Amino acid sequence: MTTMENRTYDEIAIGESAEVTREVTRADIELFAVVSGDVNPAHLDDVYASGTRFKGVIMHGMWSGAIVSSLLGVHLPGPGTIYLSQSLAFKRPVTIGDRITFKVTVKEKRDDKKIVVLECTGVNQDGKTVVDGEAVVMAPSEKLAPTAPAVPQVSIARDGGPAVAYVRK
Amino acid sequence: MTTMENRTYDEIAIGESAEVTREVTRADIELFAVVSGDVNPAHLDDVYASGTRFKGVIMHGMWSGAIVSSLLGVHLPGPGTIYLSQSLAFKRPVTIGDRITFKVTVKEKRDDKKIVVLECTGVNQDGKTVVDGEAVVMAPSEKLAPTAPAVPQVSIARDGGPAVAYVRK
C-alpha cells in the first residue's frame, strides 16, 4: 500500500518545489475534451485543425491548469491542502508528442492564515514556457499520510471501434 | 450534422454571455482525477473524505476551470478563439449532486488586438458562488461554423468491476 505524505505549513520552505513531466497523447486530449465538454474541433478534428494557425490539433489550455493543480493536491502541499486561487497565462500551444515539465515552486508563506503562494510553470521539450501562473493555497497544519486511493480504469472508444485502456504517458 | 458557430470579435457585445449547468456525478470526479493525475483521497475515498472539513468527497477545484474554458472554446467566442489567460478563485467546495451553473460574460473589448475579457462565475443550486475569475481571449476575426467533431466514448471501471459508459449530466 502506497501512502501520500503531505508537507505541512511548518515543513514547507521557500524555494521548495515539486514537478512532473507529461508526454501528451491523443487520448489525453480526447479525455480532456470529454471531461470538460470542450469539443472544439481545434482539439479533436485533424483535418479542421490542419487549417488553423497551429497546423494541427492542440491540447486544451486548461489541461495545463489541471496538471498544475495535481501537483498541489498530491505533492506540495498534498493531502489537506485547501485550494484558494490560481492564475494561468497560456504562452504557447501544446500538441501530441510534446513533453511538458510542470513545476510548482514555493515563493511566499503567510503565517497568519498558513497561506502558501507557489509559482507554476510548464516548459516543453525545447525549453520554451507553455504556461505560467501563480497558485495560492492554505497548507495543512497536520501531518497526513493517507493510503493512496484506488483509481478507476478508464477506456476510450473512437468511431464505434474497440475500447482502449487510457494509459497516462 | 451539427455545426459550432463562433462569435467574431466584431459581433461580440459587452454584456453578452454563455452558460451551462452541470450536475456533478462521482464519475465526473473520477474522470477528472484520472485526466489530471490528482488522486488525492479527498476526491476519491469516501471514508478518508468523511474525516475532512468537507465531510465527504469534493470535486477538484480545477474542474470548474475546465468547464469555464469549455464555454469559451465552444460558445463564446467558440471556434477560432485563442486562450490567453485565466484567473480563478475557489470560493466554496463542490460535491456530488451539486448543480453548478457556469457563466462567462463579456466585460471588456480591446480593439487593437481583438482581445475580449470575460467575467467567469460558477453558482450552485443554493445561489452561492463556488468559483469566480476572469478570462482573457483573442477573439476570431473570421466567421466559422465547423462541423461538430466526433467525440470518443469513455467508460469507467471501478475495482475490477464492469466498464460503465460515462454520461455527462
Please, could you describe this protein's structure?
- The structure is a homodimer of 169-residue chains.
- Chain A is of the alpha+beta class and 169 residues long.
- Chain A has a single domain (17-142, 150-168), classed as Hotdog Thioesterase (Thiol Ester Dehydrase, Chain A), CATH 3.10.129.10.
- Chain A has helices spanning 26-36, 41-44, 46-50, 61-74; strands at residues 17-23, 82-90, 99-110, 115-123, 129-138, 153-157, 164-165.
- In chain A, the strands form 2 sheets. Chain A has a 5-stranded antiparallel beta sheet, covered by helices on one side.
- In chain A, a hairpin with a 4-residue loop joins strand 3 (99-110) and strand 4.
- Chain A is globular and about 55 Å long.
- The two termini of chain A are 22 Å apart.
- The interface between A and B is large, with 63 and 63 residues.
- Strand 6 of chain A pairs antiparallel with strand 6 (153-157) of chain B.
